[in-house]
Amino acid sequence: MENKIGKIIKKRIIIIGILLSIIFMILSSRLYYLQVNKKDEYTLNAMKQRGKEFSIYPNRGTIFDRHLKPITNNELTHTIIIEKKLLIEDQELYDKVIKSTSLDHEELNEEVHRSKDLLQIPLKNINLFDYDDNRFFIVDTVKRYSKGNPLAHVIGYTSKSDNVGESGIEEVHNEFLSTEKKTSFMVEYDRDRSMILGGGYYVNQNENINNPSGVKLTVDLDIQNIVEKTLDAERLNGAVVVSEVKSGDILALASRPNFNQDNVDISFTSKDTPLFNKAIRVGYPPGSIFKIVVLLSALEENPEIKNDEFYCPGYEEVNGERFKCSSVHGKISIEEAFAKSCNSVFIQLGRKTGPQNIINMAKKLGFGSKIDIGLSEEIAGTLPQDDETLGAAIGNISIGQDKLEVTPLQASNLLTILANKGIKKDLSIVKGITNKDGKIIKDYFKEDDHRIIDKRSAEYILDRLRDVVQFGTASSMDLDNHGGAGGKTGSAEGVLNRQYVVHGWFSGFYPSMNPKYIITVLIEDSDTGSLRALPVFETIAKSIYKNNL
Known about the structure:
Number of helices: 17
Helix content: 25-40%
CATH architecture of the domain at 285-406: 3-Layer(aba) Sandwich
Structural class: alpha+beta
Strand order of the largest sheet: 10-9-21-20-19
CATH topology of the domain at 285-406: Beta-lactamase
Largest sheet: 5 strands, antiparallel
Radius of gyration: 32 Å
């Protein structure tokens, strides 16, 4: 009996020993996990309780250009972290800060007033400060947006309060861009005594490198900079789009006036609508650009019409309304009428073809609907409908006026189709979602190429566009030694700030043979119409040639 009880006790001891061993192993594993895997997290939390955290790197993922040049998170600046009380009481130190910061007296005082204890103040000059002075810290900081705000209308901006994308790529891909963990600087600070204890630490909250946290664009920063410098040098408002013929990739997209991504509030009340991306968000009458659509429609109805001869008396009357031409051209062929942008001949073509056929061709070429390059602000533009095509309306439709409104992006889409000899490319500005180093994790969806118009018609129009530059309305451009070009001018009456103005267009391809680029220029309120757009196109094309891009 005693032997049996002993065995039971021994068995229980073994079981208890095994259970204690298992519990010990579990506790040891948990302790190891907390000490190794959670060490940084708990250390950071402990530091937060006895200190204050300052962001020194944007809490958003990087946006790259096509060559993986960072467009955001790429500009280094300096900041000083200093006690509010010290700054107020030490006049000498205050004087050094005001001389070194980019803030004026009023802005600096506002920062001091808002702060409870420690301030982080941007500096443009750090030479006045002694790094051995332990009363403050000089810290390198990476800015989200670069000086001059390149590609601002595409990148967009974020809200100040909650780090959420409000427009552009920042808004469309906020889900991925907002996953980036920040790098910060932690200051040991005694809140009760309002004093720095002496310690400052860099904290890097690393995450899995393969997490989607960045966006790669199709934009080429070198070409984008050329476009923006050209517009700014001439102080022009409007938009420019540069796309690649072969791929349909958007290489540059600029809108003017520009805006400050770090101070968006001041732009909301501006009458020039600087926050509007005018390449995709504003519709303009296309003027003579639309004559391309009229001619394509006429060729589709009757391919032999290109052999007809026309007569221009200097005007054309439709239902009692007179439409003027730029000149009395007399007897004239379609080729000459296109090159010289003869309103009379194109109204005659429009009447023969009919408004509905022209509108149908326009829809086929992407007008009246979004191109959808990957930005949410894009609009569809407008095409005349129903009663808007009746009576004298065919006169306005034939020369791209009145109820017609298109975006510069839509004009680029038209020229891209022509340069690809009738094949539509899916234009886009996003390559894909990337990890933090720019490696593509998910490609941006693109539709397959498909034919929109007959190859012979497209080739015929391409030759006519070359005529425009050779001896037509764009002959003032000097590109013969830089590869030549082809394109169409346009001057169109529109409304801007409740006033009637003339907008200037030129949308074309470069170089002339085997085109590589489509460049569309829209200049708002152009006193000389398309003549203001031509030098912009010429400068961009020559800069691309000079830089071998």
